[in-house]
Design a protein that fits this description.
Elements lengths: L10 E5 L4 H12 L3 E6 L4 H10 L3 E6 L5 H15 L4 E4 L15 H29 L2 E6 L12 H21 L4 E8 L8 H4 L2 H8 L10 H12 L10 E4 L7
Parallel strand pairs: 1-2, 1-4, 2-3, 4-5, 5-6, 6-7
The structure holds nicotinamide-adenine-dinucleotide.
Nicotinamide-adenine-dinucleotide binds next to helix 1 and helix 4.
Family: Belongs to the short-chain dehydrogenases/reductases (SDR) family.
Keywords: Oxidoreductase
InterPro entries: NAD(P)-bd_dom_sf, Sc_DH/Rdtase_CS, SDR_fam
């Protein structure tokens, strides 16, 4: 019997894999045989590549700002030139705007958040789908958030962008299901990464945000990566247009 979680000979693009959820996912997929192509603005992505290649895996880093169409096209083209095709993409790059009440949010922070968290996913989907159409399909997973399903306090631009990621996911899944392309979104709750360090430093705040779910803790990046592995695999062959909370139950109450 074949192992559906074996990604040998599959090429996977991952954006935002210099750290956090993206790095953990890159490592997990590489451990399962995938060839990883990372797009990130941060040169720390080289460390992710080293972690994978020192373990015997295959990975490369293509410096990419997901807000730039030219950069995203270059990322996809590099993956295709190197490996002949892309099978899976994980559109995960993201930023958090400064935490502030709605009325105190600035136009600048709104534009920046929408550019990275929403337009970045649009551009990634567009060029990945273009490449997948030439090779008969693939699986794409976008990182939304619980903030794509419900309002998190004091982060209106992020909530808007992540709700938008859910919309892009459903649209892309609708338009390209017949082309053999599955598109799903993850909705992580609180995850212990650089993004949430600002809260971790404040014990009172950390207590409040970790008691927001049934498990009373934050997820490790690895606990999010497992869902990406599943959605990217043939075991999820009928899953498309879905939004999958991995949130300790935060949105279930
Ligand atoms: N940490 C959480 O609690 C949490 C919860 C829900 C969703 N998310 C989402 O998970 C994703 C990963 O975040 P994380 O928690 O691992 O944080 P992180 O800060 O460790 O990772 C974000 C990654 O995105 C990259 N990035 C930022 N701007 C970019 C750009 N313009 N172009 C390319 N890459 C860029 C960063 O360099 C970094 O590698 C994000 O989309 C985030 O919104 C995080």
């Amino acid at each position: 019997m074949t192992n559906a979680l074996d990604f040998t000979d599959k090429t996977v693009i991952i954006t935002g894999a210099a750290s956090g959820i993206g790095r953990a996912t890159a490592r997990l997929l590489a451990d399962n045989g995938a060839k990883i192509v990372i797009g990130d603005v941060d040169d720390q992505a080289n460390e992710t590549v080293d972690l994978i290649t020192h373990g015997g895996g295959t990975a490369q880093f293509v410096k990419t700002d997901v807000t730039s169409a030219a950069d995203v096209q270059n990322l996809v083209q590099t993956a295709v030139d190197t490996h002949g095709r892309i099978d899976v993409a994980f559109n995960n790059a993201g930023i958090l705007p400064p935490v502030a009440r709605f009325v105190d949010q600035t136009e600048k922070d709104f534009d920046k958040t929408i550019a990275v968290d929403l337009k970045g996913v649009f551009l990634s989907l567009k060029y990945e789908i273009e490449a997948m159409l030439k090779t008969g399909g693939g699986a794409i997973i976008n990182t939304a958030s619980v903030a794509g399903l419900i309002a998190d306090p004091d982060m209106a631009p992020y909530v808007a962008a992540k709700h938008g990621v859910v919309g892009l996911t459903r649209s892309a899944a609708y338009d390209h299901g017949k082309d053999g392309i599955r598109v799903n979104a993850l909705a992580p709750g609180l995850v212990e990464t650089g993004m949430t360090e600002v809260w971790r430093k404040d014990p009172e705040k950390w207590d409040a945000v970790t008691s927001n779910n049934f498990l009373n803790k934050a997820a490790s990046p690895e606990e999010i990566a497992g869902m990406v592995l599943f959605l990217a695999s043939d075991l999820a062959g009928f899953a498309t247009g879905g939004v999958y909370p991995v949130d300790g139950g935060q949105t279930a109450r």
